[in-house]
Amino acid sequence: MHAARRRAEVALGDGPADTGNDPLLGPLAALNAQIAVLQQPRDIAAVARQLGSVPLPVRIIESRDRGFFPRPADDGPEKPALAVGVCRLDGTLVTNAHVLRPDEVHNLTLEIRLTSWPEQAMAVEVGFLSVLSPNQARLPTFTFPRTSPDDDGVYRLSASGPLSVSYKLPAGAPPQAFPIAARFTGPGTDQVLPVAGHSEMRLRPFDATTDALTSRPQLDERIVRMYSVLHAMDMYPGDVQAFCRLYTAIVDKAVDMQFDRAYRKGARVTERAFHNDLFNRLLADPSLEGRVQRGNRTAGGFLDVLHDRINAELKVARQTAVTVETSHKYLGQPADYAADTGSQLSILVVLDMTGKRLPPGVLENYLGWMEPALIGLDDPRYPSLVGVIIINGNLDVPSGYPRGKGGPAAAVQPSSDTGGP
Question: Is the pTM of this model over 0.85?
């Protein structure tokens, strides 16, 4: 993060003084200004998402009107060739770090555009540089024989090949870069060809701590922010990924269950019915790949839900309403089960079927972390964490809240800082 801030400061200092109205440099300068003041690692994800929509000043055909690159004199030596690369994975343009599922085969399409081709060169060879072994990243190489330019004088080359990865990265780690290496070849010719545009491809295996996906984009962003707690903790990487997969899947189901007719006001829901309903929904979730179990004997008891060593304990509250902060009375059971499986992470899901006089807020208000106290340890080196999910059931229909059934409301005043002069 410190290196990114420094590069942004250098770019702002070396760039043109007035770029605000420039359609290319303006958005890039604004993004550099945001990077230069980053303070927390969790802020990087939001800036990275903006980068995908920022146009970059890429030279495809040289122009006399732009001063991005020096133009040699017409009577000087032959100018070096420059290639522009464009990468697509499964038909999608790669504009930022591309997330891949490990061991899935993808179709990589590489387009190369040239404005000149040396006479002695018979082909262009293109590959991807990598510090990983061929077993960890399998990327194609391409050989383009000499061809004729189009009416605009541009050589357009395109080919496709299979790509797959099996490497893993720590939770929250930056993507792996694969620079594009191109060269002209021919009898007595071996000339490096600089590549602009997509000069490298950045790939990252699916990371459940940053690639959470539910049916609501704003919920995804807040879950990812919650998962950032795990990035700096000393935990087994497999458990971190499994926890986030299961937690995200349960949150996704809770969005639907909260307003399901089976859990509406007046419904009589047994704990067994709740267990069966949630388990069946999780079993059908493709992100968990069917690796969902229940009834496993652990720590002298039986697990409600288990996914890759991560257990979820399910409870139904009928007498006293529950929030994340008041869920402490339930934390011992999931933490105890997790300790027996050797994991520091577990999940508590509480279906709150107590009487309701007020409408619920968005589900994000009922998600959070709790750290249960452990025997004889005030500050454990390896703490246990429980991800809590509260599902509000027994809700009235929307028209049942007005006319005296609501609670006190607070008036929200606009900010005095309107952003004006």
Answer: no
